[in-house]
């Protein structure tokens, strides 16, 4: 943990992202443990409370930076700022409201459109991963493991899984899926069913820092802090699996 005597202004961007993500996660766990809300009401309360804290914390620590949050109206002025924090205060609202563990807090910094620093907190799993000191998982033996949506596995993901004989692991939030790959619990996370910048920026920053492959599913780079925050697909996987995945997506030559 960072020395608590260090002020927010003195923290590196990665350390700030970690501290904000962890604290937001603690707030969310306390809220869930209060038993004052249930189900959808708990999810809505979690979104609101976590967002209020994150916005206040980042504005205090980095007053000159822009912020794009899922829970705030996008400010067009952010487009003129080379530094933009892109956050999802509660990724996996349904899972959080249902009492599950596969939800996350995303805090990331985009510099000139690139995810450069960030943290993904998994509060119900007592784990936070940030871009500082992140290490790539080693190659594992046995079947390839692929995380997919619990409710709507993408057709492209199912196609890849079938071609590579991958074991499917249903999971909730995007952050939880991506961190399963970072932690070596899965090998591929392919999503093509629609996302926004806040769904992927922090996971992508962490995955990149861990040495994993990250891109759009056509192989193009992921670009952030754009006029339209819709960023519908991504691939996070072990570097050695990127080309086999692309080969399946391209189809017969």
Automatic annotation (TrEMBL):
Gene Ontology terms for molecular function: 3'(2'),5'-bisphosphate nucleotidase activity; metal ion binding
Protein name: 3'(2'), 5'-bisphosphate nucleotidase
GO biological process, one term: 3'-phosphoadenosine 5'-phosphosulfate metabolic process
Lineage, broadest ranks: Bacteria, Pseudomonadati, Pseudomonadota, Alphaproteobacteria, Sphingomonadales
Positions contributing to Mg(2+) 2 binding: 90
Enzyme class: hydrolase
Entry keyword Protein transport: no
Classification via InterPro entries: CysQ/Inositol_MonoPase (IPR050725), Inositol_monophosphatase-like (IPR000760)
């Amino acid at each position: 943990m960072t020395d608590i005597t260090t002020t927010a202004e003195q923290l590196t961007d990665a350390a700030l992202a970690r501290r904000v993500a962890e604290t937001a996660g603690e707030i969310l766990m306390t809220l869930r443990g209060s038993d004052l809300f249930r189900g959808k009401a708990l999810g809505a309360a979690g979104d609101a409370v976590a967002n209020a804290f994150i916005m206040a914390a980042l504005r205090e620590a980095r007053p000159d930076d822009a912020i794009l949050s899922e829970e705030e109206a996008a400010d067009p002025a952010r487009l003129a700022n080379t530094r933009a924090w892109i956050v999802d205060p509660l990724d996996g609202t349904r899972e959080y409201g249902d009492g599950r563990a596969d939800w996350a807090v995303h805090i990331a910094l985009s510099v000139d459109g690139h995810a450069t620093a960030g943290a993904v907190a998994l509060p119900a799993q007592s784990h936070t991963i940030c871009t500082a000191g992140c290490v790539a998982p080693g190659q594992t033996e046995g079947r390839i493991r692929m995380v997919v949506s619990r409710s709507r596995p993408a057709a492209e993901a199912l196609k890849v899984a079938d071609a590579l004989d991958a074991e499917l692991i249903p999971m909730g939030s995007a952050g939880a899926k991506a961190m399963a790959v970072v932690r070596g619990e899965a090998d591929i996370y392919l999503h093509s069913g629609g996302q926004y910048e806040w769904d992927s920026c922090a996971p992508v920053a962490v995955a990149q820092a861990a040495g994993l492959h990250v891109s759009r599913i056509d192989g193009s780079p992921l670009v952030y802090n754009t006029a339209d925050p819709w960023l519908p697909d991504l691939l996070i996987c072990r570097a050695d699996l990127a080309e086999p995945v692309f080969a399946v997506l391209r189809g017969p030559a």
